[in-house]
Amino acid sequence: MEEKYRVILVHRDRYLVRNGAKELYCVLTGSLRYRDEYPVAGDYVEITENPFGDSLIRAILPRRTVFYRPDRGGHADGFAKTIQVQPLIANMDYVFIITSLNQDFSLNRIARYASMITAGGAVPVAVLTKADQCADVEEKERETAALSGQMEAVAVSSYTGFGLERLQKYFIPGTTIALLGSSGAGKSTLINTLAGEEVMRTGEIREADSKGRHTTTHREIIEINGVSFIDTPGLRELGMVAAEEGISGTFTDIAELISQCAFSDCTHRSEPGCAVRNALADGTLSPERWELYNRLEQENSWSKIKKNEKMMNIAMDKRKQRKHSEWKER
Ligand SMILES: Nc1nc2c(ncn2[C@@H]2O[C@H](COP(=O)(O)OP(=O)(O)OP(=O)(O)O)[C@@H](O)[C@H]2O)c(=O)[nH]1
Ligand SMILES: [Zn+2]
To answer: Please, which domain of life does this record's source organism belong to (predicted)?
Structure first.
């Protein structure tokens, strides 16, 4: 018997899948493993049920949206032939970027997440948590919203309930919402507050540095009033590898301007007919936004440069080795 199930929990090489009220543990068929195709939370899969033990996932259905995280693991450090990107969650409509309004707050990080989410086809929403700990909530909200015309910024407090009603419009039954954010940002507490009960384990964070202890051990989906929430473990570091496309996606206004520059290779410094300079001059583009765009772009190309350097070093080492052996043979 074959049916469409959704992956709600990934636990090493076992997957908990659900269809309505029915939940089954599954393993992968050999051919999926052979093709290096691994389901992630939110995936829809075809399974063959086994009443006597783990059922079998036979196929992963095409992903509507996906969020990748850069994957540098698994290879020796120098072997950066291609930096692989690894899917983390799939088939979500919205991704809440959870950032706490304390020392951990970073516009740069929110912009990175937003870029990567847009690149994967989902809609980012900046959810600024722990508003009760912040003195300039409105300003932070304004700054965040200014990052992208397509992203709403909502400050909330799970403790006081502040702002939570503004998230209601995203809670449409049938919708999938993923929560991304650093460990300790308040993802689990937010879900618990929305659900009105203890559905996720929450952890205390160390007060001193506002860095959270890693408490979420696996990704899981929980359903509250027909809305599926995907909780992800805190992502410590987020590279820009998959975000290139997303940068122009989030900064569509800037991409648009760049396309209007008189020269196609315009550096936007001194060329005549530069649409970016013009927009900066007449105030349609804020200098802060332009600077952020450049910073993200730089970071992005910087990771490429580092990658190329590494490859060149490997090539040079090989040449040296060859020279050395040629010399020895003589
Ligand atoms: N002041 C304040 N603290 C909060 C709020 N929401 C969560 N916290 C606290 O922040 C800490 C971390 O919250 P969690 O919900 O466990 O954070 P998380 O993002 O799920 O962390 P991981 O599970 O590690 O990914 C806990 O001590 C919470 O009590 C809030 O609205 N205001
Ligand atoms: Zn230009």
So the answer is: Bacteria
Q: Which fold has domain 66-231?
A: Rossmann fold (3.40.50)
Q: What is the mean pLDDT of the chain?
A: 77
pLDDT in tens, 176-198: 999 988 778 888 889 888 877 54
Distance of alpha carbon 246 from alpha carbon 293, whole angstroms: 11
pLDDT-based confidence at residue 42 (cuts at 50, 70, 90): very high
- For atom 21 of ligand 1, which residue has the closest CA? 184
Domain 241-326, second-level architecture: Orthogonal Bundle (1.10)
Centre of ligand 1 from the C-alpha of residue 212, in Å: 8
Q: pTM for this structure?
A: 0.68
Residues 6 or more apart whose Cβ sits within 8 Å of residue 246: 114, 115, 116, 117, 118, 119, 120
Q: Enter the tokens of residue 34.
A: 């052979």
Domain boundaries, the chain: 2-60, 66-231, 241-326
Could you tell me the fold of the domain covering 2-60? OB fold (Dihydrolipoamide Acetyltransferase, E2P) (2.40.50)
